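Forum: Protein Structure Q&A
Topic: Joint prediction for protein chains with partners

I've read a bunch of threads here and the consensus seems to be that you should model interacting components together rather than docking separate models afterwards. I'd like to see that in practice. Below is the full input, 268 residues plus whatever partners are listed. Could one of the regulars post the assembled result?
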Amino acid sequence: MTVGPAGGGGPLEMAAGATGIWVNVPNENELVHIDPSTNAVVCSVAESGQPILDGTSVWVENGNGVDRVDPATCGIVASVDLATTLSGFKQPTAWGTAGFGSVWLPTNLGLARIDETTGRLIGLLRKVPNGDLAITADSIWSAGYGNAKLLRILPEG
Amino acid sequence: MTRSIQLALAGALLVAATAAGGAAGAPASSLPAGAKVVSTIRMPAPADPEWLAVDANNLWVHGPDAVVRVDPSRNAVVAEIPTGPVDYGYLTSGLGSVWQTYFGSRTERSG
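Posted by a regular:
Agreed with the consensus. Here's the joint model:
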């Protein structure tokens, strides 16, 4: 199925979960929600960013933080603006993930922890380099791109 | 100048600086960590970690020349799968395999 322009641009990051398939299409400046049972586009979020699925909601990295999206309507229902709440923040990377009741977002200041329920920034683990994140049963793993190290991180509090 | 007046002036200057576009938001040092690093696993050179994937028992790490298999129960690298140079080797797992994209060329199946 086509969800963006043909050629060198078009679909980039993708995530799959209980709410369906979510595909970032930067050239169209939108995040497309696909129903895998019908291969049909359900709706589209009017912004481009990496999708992060937490089981019930979809979060979209937006350059200044993340927006929370209602998967039924693709409407943005909440925003977490780290650029105004965190001094020295520049830009999140495209490696966010969700787990342990939180959205985890690598930033230039460290690993930001956002409460899934309240949307509040509740933690910042400093000295964690930018890198892809993965979740296992009890841990968050951070790929320390550029320093040849893999970090195992346990949530606290 | 009394201390209370000094504090009032400092507060007014801070408000003015913020309104004028100065530094805003909480300093990073004021936040709790919310997590802690419990292990650091050094990747075998030159496998600088970039992308990660997980399955039921393993963590898979993409480096520029290999996919590295990590056993989370041991915090240890247990295998290296040479792949040759890969610039953007996004990983995922499923159907009993690990899948890696080769930016601009092909997708490879490992494991």
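Chain B has one helix and eight strands.
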